[in-house]
Amino acid sequence: MRKGHSWGASLVAGALLAGLAACQPKEKEAPRVIYNGPLFETENVVTLLSDSARLHARLTAPLEQIFENGDKLYPKSATVTFYDKPGKLVVNTIFAKSVKFDNAKQLYILRGAVKVANVPEQQMLNTEELFYSSGQRKIYTDTAMFVRVQTPTEVLTGNGLTANQDFSRYGILNPKGVFSIAEAQRLGK
């Protein structure tokens, strides 16, 4: 009988201890901290985009940050160079002080002293914000964004622009002026 009695006493003692533990105040859990920063950072990035062993584009940047949702940020500038179909000659370059890649939209958002240069046509675009859709292979600005396009003979200004990715065909949505190179230099345009 002693065995049954000690087992019963142990059960009662365990129940009392559990009851006392339940009466103790619970410690508060620390609030969860959600990290929204980059998962990866890479310095001196060179990314080559190719198809069928032909180079289409090269992105270079001093810093790349990759986020959980696949977005990428190039906060210290970036240059994108596009090549012709055989992948040999530079057709176009785009430079910006800051670039964000929106993975969900497959859209590059370029900000700060954005420059687009069509090398064969000797055309240069200057603006403060530009969008590049890799899926549609086009570059464009908001309709209110000021743009300045310089060709070998003239300077065109206005608001809003759409163009193909190599900047060989473009349209200014709201043209403001067309100036000869000499006139643009004289007027500071």
Q: How many runs of DSSP E, i.e. beta strands? A: 12
What integer is the average pLDDT? 86
Class by alpha and beta content: alpha+beta
CATH homologous superfamily? Lipopolysaccharide (LPS) transport protein A like domain
Q: Quick one: biggest sheet?
A: 12 strands, antiparallel
Q: Categorize the overall geometry.
A: elongated
Number of domains: 1
* CATH topology type: lipopolysaccharide transport protein A fold
Looking at the overall shape, the CATH architecture is Sandwich
The Cα radius of gyration reads 30 Å
Overall CATH class? Mainly Beta
Question: Could you characterize the architecture of this molecule?
Answer:
By secondary structure, this protein is α+β, with helices and mostly antiparallel strands. The protein has one domain (40-187): lipopolysaccharide transport protein A fold, CATH 2.60.450.10. 15% of the residues lie in helices and 52% in strands. The radius of gyration is 30 Å and the shape is elongated.
Secondary structure blueprint with pairings:
Elements: H1 2-23, E1 40-51, E2 54-66, E3 72-74, E4 78-83, E5 90-96, E6 98-102, E7 107-118, E8 123-133, E9 138-140, E10 146-150, E11 154-164, E12 170-180, H2 181-187
Antiparallel strand pairs: 1-2, 2-3, 2-4, 3-6, 4-5, 5-7, 6-7, 7-8, 8-9, 8-10, 9-11, 10-11, 11-12
